[in-house]
Amino acid sequence: MTEALQLQSGRQGDNELAYCIRTLISEGYLKYQYTGFIGKKKVTIVQELKGPTSLLTTTIHGQLEGQLDDRMITIHPNTTAEQTRDIISRTAEMASGNSDGVDQKTLDAWKLFYKSLGSVEVVIPYAGDIAAFINRTGSLPISSRRAFKRVLATIKTIALIHQKQRSRDDQGRVIADYADFFIAYQLVGDSFRESLGEGQRYTDDRVRLVEKDGQMTPRALSENIGVSTAAISQWLKPMIEKGVLVWCDGNGVEFTDVAELERAKRMGQAFVKVAERPCLPSPYQLTGDSRWNAGGEFGELYDLGFEESDQNEGESTVLPEMETKDSIEEISAPADSDEAVKVLSEKTGPDNNFKNERLDSGLVPVEFENLADEFSGLLQMN
Question: Which segment of 31-45, 105-119, 252-266, 275-289 scores lowest on mean pLDDT?
């Protein structure tokens, strides 16, 4: 639905359209009964529309109709001034005829790839660990029931798309690995928090860095940002007092004894973390593997690059003496269309570095199928 006018929040009363869409999304089918006639005999006629049904819609309002909004994943677009300028520039390029369209061979390669996917069940071995992390915050709203199911559905969808790069169990089911969770974490982490009434998102770069990493020592934070530990200590004090950040040990357990905290500080064993709110665990919090940390091997490999572009200009609160340096290098996409398709095929080849990195990573073993042959015909298209 290109516009969600009848489904937006604030409209008085329910309507049949909203009811039908909610039922299709929740049940996967819609039954509708009415009174009709067979000859002169009055009978009840039942019409059934079978799903499953997926809904994609847009709205300028913050929410859809309450019961429907609770069944969906909300993704907020990039509203920065920089993005607006890019859109205007791109629109002008298209209008002037100077814009290059999407290469047809690239489109054909992706179509062929998706046709090669099969319908298969997906299992998430670490689902219980995610649930345990969420439940440890104590009382949760009822909305968390559906929100958690949406997170699992997202992980399964990502694993399903990567089924040719995933291992299977003895029942032939695709096994989702932690990479699938990390991608889902970046896509729907904020949506999950909003579903639980925790829509606030910290805009201070340093708080967001700690939140992404799970927990950090003040020294590690200062080294990451490139400022002195004294400046970090000055910034930390009000953050601790406001309850935004808390002190914890290496296992994430908050300090309750002041003397124990001071001893840990002197030994460099005191960490800071964002005060617990109902949220998804970061990959590092879920695995305990430092390679999933910000800047770590896996953290870099599967980073979708949202963090550097989803922040409104002027929102960060930075102390005058703290100059934040860029830690993310800009990577340009290949301009040559043939090369773009080649990248896709090389990622799935039998002798690529991507495969070796994953097999040596300690993650679930991966069985790769060679898709390069399937694309080779497309790569040679005139």
Answer: 275-289
| Percentage with pLDDT > 90 across the chain | 24
Cβ contacts of 160 within 8 Å, gap of 6 or more: 117, 120, 122, 174
Please report which helix (H) or strand (E) contains residue 11, including its range: none
Dihedrals phi, psi of 349, to nearest 5 degrees: -75, 165
Would 130 be classed as within a structural domain?
Answer: no
Mean pLDDT computed over every residue of the chain: 76
Tell me which of 16, 43, 69 is where a domain ends.
69
Bridge partners of 47?
Answer: 32
Q: Which residue among 32, 51, 69 closes a domain? A: 69
Q: Per the structure, how many domains does the chain have? A: 2
Q: What tokens appear for 61 in the block?
A: 């309002």
- 98 in any annotated domain: no
Is 185's pLDDT higher than 90? yes
pTM of the complete model: 0.59
Burial grade of 57 (CB within 10 A; 0-12, 13-18, 19 or more): middle
Query: In which domain, by residue range, is 275 found?
Result: 205-301
In a domain, 178, yes or no: no
Asked, for residue 135, whether it belongs to a domain, the answer is: no
- Within 13 Å and on the Cβ side, how many CA atoms surround 264? 20
